[in-house]
């Protein structure tokens, strides 16, 4: 279960990169993701239980998240994530992607 966010834990004023005085909801949620939660998310995407996400499946997931991704953008994202060019995304590659998103 994520820890409770206390107002004293949050930066004040213009400490946020976008200059806003309050954190975005997504920032608060993502800051609290634990390794176990990330593993659970990975298992959801690894629908075959093989320990990796096939690039084809990942492409579908990305399109579901944002249907405005172009094929070129999807290719770029996948190239950045699939570092070993295995046509699969393992948990370490998934973690790297999640840390870049958050």
What keywords describe this structure?
globular; two-stranded antiparallel sheet; single chain; mainly alpha
Explain this structure to me?
This protein is mainly α. About 50% of the residues lie in helices and about 5% in strands. The chain has helices at about 25-30, 35-45, 55-65, 70-80, 90-100; strands spanning about 50-55, 90. It has a two-stranded antiparallel ribbon with strand order 1-2. The two termini are about 20 Å apart. The relative contact order is 0.12.
- Taking all Cα atoms into account, the compactness measure Rg is 16 Å
Q: Averaging pLDDT over every residue, what do you get?
A: 76
Distance between the termini: 19 Å
The number of helical segments is 5
Residue stretches low in confidence (pLDDT < 50, at least 5 long) are 1-18, 25-29
The helical percent reads 40-55%
Strand content: 5-15%
Arrangement of strands in the largest sheet: 1-2
Number of strands: 2
- Class computed from helices, strands and strand pairing: mainly alpha
Helix and strand run:
HHEHHEH
Main sheet properties: 2 strands, antiparallel
Question: How would you describe the shape?
Answer: globular
